Amino acid sequence: MSWAKIFALSLRHIYLIKGSFPRILDLIYWPTIQIFLWGFISKFFTMNSSYFENTVGVILSAAILYDFLFRSSISYNMMFLEEIWSRNFTNLFIAPIKLSEIIAALTFTAIFRTLIGLIPAALLAIPLFGVSIFKIGLPLILLLVTLYLFGVTLGLMVTSGLVRFGPSFENIAWASLFFLAPLGCIYYPIEVLPGWLQLAAKLLPLVYIFEEMRNILIYDIISYYQISKAVVISILYFIFGVILFYLSYAGAKNRGTLINMGE
Amino acid sequence: MKLEVKNLTKKFGNTIAVKRINFQIEKNSTLGLLGPNGCGKTTSIGMMLGLITPTEGKVFIDGINLDPKNRIRLLSKMNFASPYIELPKKLTVKQNLEVYARLYGVKKISSRINEMTDELNLSNFLERKTGELSSGQKNRVALAKSLINKPNLLFLDEPTASLDPDVGDFVREYLENYKKKNELTILLASHNMKEVERLCDKIIMMKDGEIVDSGTCNELIQKHGRKNLEETFLKIARSKNELG
Questions:
Q1: CB–CB of B192/B160 below 8 Å?
Q2: Which structural domains are found in chain B, ordered by start?
Q3: Residue A248 has what pLDDT?
């Protein structure tokens, strides 16, 4: 892999973000709205039920982490969609770039887009609701890395669909995360789900990540075994995502959809 | 670079888009790829660029097979321009050229960008967003991008389509002069017969996915007993109707 080419591909997206204030605003806007929404809902519950008294922080932290996952996946898809929308797709695929370099560039650049949204939202939650996700401590890094890897994997899978089926797959890009959200047990423990859905949920790393977040915040307990389970599952999904991307690329080359792909 | 195409075929399901085409372009020469819409030109170019997997046949560049193993090495010496693909509209001309210069591993990026934009009269637009340019300016930026890596093999798909006669003439003259100073083999797909007559050393005519004729402009005009290339094109393109 050539780091110079990965940097060049990243630069194209950095220039795009840098040159457009509305784009930066858009990146910050949605996570901030999420924080306000969940913050006030949680506050309302606190005022009206003693059960929820200590869980404002848990719900809000879950909202921030879920948004981090959502943004990392969407950022990945968005960068790829930008190439399709701008009709730059063919230029990109006739340049001497390896698929692995494209994947690496999108993966590394997605973190910038994600952090532009996450950092202001996470900081805003501290004075507004007295909630800091940084209370999770060092395991927060592991949780974020795992979430990021899974978010990027989802982005990679949707991108594979875009390569294979073209822009008509765009709607799936937006719907993909909403589909997984109920199974991810983000705001509730896995026991809430019916038995058969619990089995499906355990195949996702999200269950272990959000369960661990709750354990840390409520009981002050850390299970590195659960976290490592999430890491391993995320890596397996990532490998699957990469294979899928390569297969989709080969399929697109066979179908001739890489040339003149646009809006 | 010498381009050689052997038995190149592409089927999409039951449809044969390109049927066993064979031709070669000698180093530093320009070949015109002509044919009516839907005759398989774009599919053929797609296969020669490694964007479409042929059903059968091979593409050789300087004797090297354009397979996945050699693709990156060969692509670094090739490029492509077409009015049907664009550069990111929100990036400035300079940013777009910089990104592609980096992707192609160009060494002295700034001087290469300045050189290209000077030659193509784009120096005043370097800081302008590409999407804000006129179609003539965009076309020249696309040409600058396609030459940024000093390619030895260039594919041009209707390089002057939708340009006014003045800009069209500028682009043709630029290409002629560029070719004199640089080692460059060109495959030109165009519907502008005067452009083809001016730029191409040899022509191949495609119809229904097959090569139906080839030769120099004069050879083809004489062979078909017509006054010019446009009439020759029409005769070949409509040959089935005449026969029917």
A1: yes
A2: 3-77+151-243 (3.40.50.300), 88-150 (no CATH)
A3: 93
Per the structure, how many domains does chain A have?
1
Which tokens belong to A168? 């008509």
Calculate the CA dihedral of residues B42, B44, B45, B49 and round it to 10 degrees: 130
Residue from A167, A200, A163 nearest A184 by CA: A200
In a domain, A106, yes or no: yes
B97 interfaces chain A, CB cutoff of 8 Å: no
Q: Does A88 touch chain B (CB under 8 A)?
A: yes
Strands of the sheet containing B202-207, edge to edge, are B78-81, B153-157, B185-189, B30-34, B202-207, B210-215
- Kindly determine whether residue A97 and residue B72, on different chains, have CB atoms separated by under 8 Å: yes
Answer yes or no: is pLDDT of A46 > 80: no
Output the six-digit token pair for B103: 């992707």
Which helix or strand (DSSP H or E) is residue A178 part of? Answer: helix A170-180
Predicted confidence (pLDDT) per residue in A116-129, tens digit:
888 888 888 888 88
Tens digit of each residue's pLDDT (9 = 90 or more) over A165-204: 877 777 776 777 677 778 888 888 888 888 898 999 999 9
In a domain, A260, yes or no: no
Which phi and psi (to 5°) does residue A164 adopt?
A: -75, -45
Assess if residue A153 is contained within a domain: yes
**Which residues in chain B touch residue A91, judged by CB atoms under 8 angstroms apart?**
80, 85, 87, 100, 145
What's the pLDDT tens digit per position in B95-129? 999 999 999 999 999 999 999 999 999 999 999 99
Cβ-Cβ contacts under 8 Å between A and B: the total is 109
Residues facing residue B213 across a β-bridge: B205
Whether A91 and B42 lie within 8 Å, measured CB to CB: no
- Its domain, for residue A105, covers 3-255
Residue A256 touches chain B, beta carbons under 8 Å: yes
How far from chain centre, in Å, is Cα B15?
A: 25
Task: Provide the H-helix boundaries in B59-134.
Answer: 71-75, 93-103, 109-119
> Residue A208: in which H helix or E strand, if any?
helix A205-214
Nearest residue on chain B to A12, alpha-carbon basis = B99
Secondary structure of residue B108 in the 3-state scheme? coil
A80 in reach of chain B (CB within 8 A):
no
Q: How far is B81 from B145, CA to CA, in rounded Å?
A: 8
Q: How far is CA B150 from the centre of its chain?
A: 15
* Chain A hits for B80, Cβ within 8 Å: 90-91, 94
Report if residue A262 sits inside a domain: no
Count Cβ atoms within 10 A of the Cβ of residue B108 and give its class: 0-12 exposed, 13-18 middle, 19 or more buried: exposed
